[in-house]
Amino acid sequence: MATHTGPDPQHPIPPGGALFCPSALLPEGWRSDVLLRWDAAGNLTAATPGSARGDAAIAAGPVIPGMPNLHSHAFQRAMAGLTETMGSPTDSFWSWRTLMYRFAQRLQPRHLEAIARHLYIEMLKAGYTSVCEFHYLHHAQGGTAYADPAELSLRVMRAAEEAGIGMTLLPVLYQYGGFGSAAPLEHQARFLSSPQWMLELRARLQQALPEDGMRRYGVAPHSLRAVSADGLAALVAGLRSQANGEDAPIHIHIAEQTREVEDCLAWSGKRPVQLLLSLQDLDRRWCLVHATHMSDDEYHAVAAGGAVVGLCPTTEANLGDGIIDAPRLLEDGANWGIGSDSNIAINLRSELRLLEYGQRLHHRRRNVLAS
């Protein structure tokens, strides 16, 4: 079993430094002679246009911000292509999910670490400089606990550290197999936990690998079908009481599939996003992953609260999820970002292109998202 007790002396944190950029894209637009400075923990401390170079290294060309990857399931990179044969004329997200569960049963800690390391290197090459890992593989086969409950989480963190990518780890709370606290499936045993277990895991991670400019820990209630209202409340309240918990990110799968919307309506009388809005204050800490199927009122409320909508165009297309009405997001001023999700393809430009092209097909016009 691997041990994870702190920074690896073979991979020390680089000291603070500076980079002179003849041309750089800042929040206010393109600027010339920008001096970037960062501290020893990797935190950017200054971006000053109109500066002298001094003794700073000089950038080889124009500098733009790195793209955060808002949603990733690292282990699924290793099953890319395995589901691309028709098992049934009615293949869907739900049949894909069954195959994914079977694949997850076979993974050992060393497999997860190797898959994640390779994936994160691919992400860096593609232009992603940080990733939000929606990590729900917690236990050994059959749900047996590891001696260190953080074993698999720390494997993912070590992979990110070795690759050199910024990491926001989002350990996933998974309680049930469906709305109404339905019994979990046998293949979900490796994912199951409680709010208290999840909070203790986050505390263990902070102790083993403290947060810094390259590491952050949040939480991820998997979905409203997998987490009860009481479980969600306990998780969010407990998070706020932890170190760095007040501003810690909270990500959740929501309204990805029409069946999910129908099941939620049948059980609660509310749509998924509508139900979540009634349970929690969706502020800027929240990322609603997918949110593909929303009503007009839901679009407006999500934008008004400041939550981020996490779009995963390649995965959503691959699974036949549907197409979000992206112009509505822009009209309401909603925050949004991109994720690679199931990691069948690691290509930032393709994600953005597919987002635009999907909107062209949906709205039957060109340049839908152009500013």
UniProtKB/TrEMBL annotation:
Pfam families: Amidohydro_1 (PF01979). Keywords: Hydrolase, Metal-binding, Zinc. InterPro entries: Amidohydro-rel, HutF, Metal_Hydrolase, Metallo-dep_hydrolases. Residues 63-360 form the Amidohydrolase-related domain. GO terms for molecular function: deaminase activity; metal ion binding. The keyword Phosphoprotein does not apply. Its cofactor is Zn(2+). This is 8-oxoguanine deaminase. NCBIfam families: hutF, PRK09229.1-5. GO terms for cellular component: cytosol.
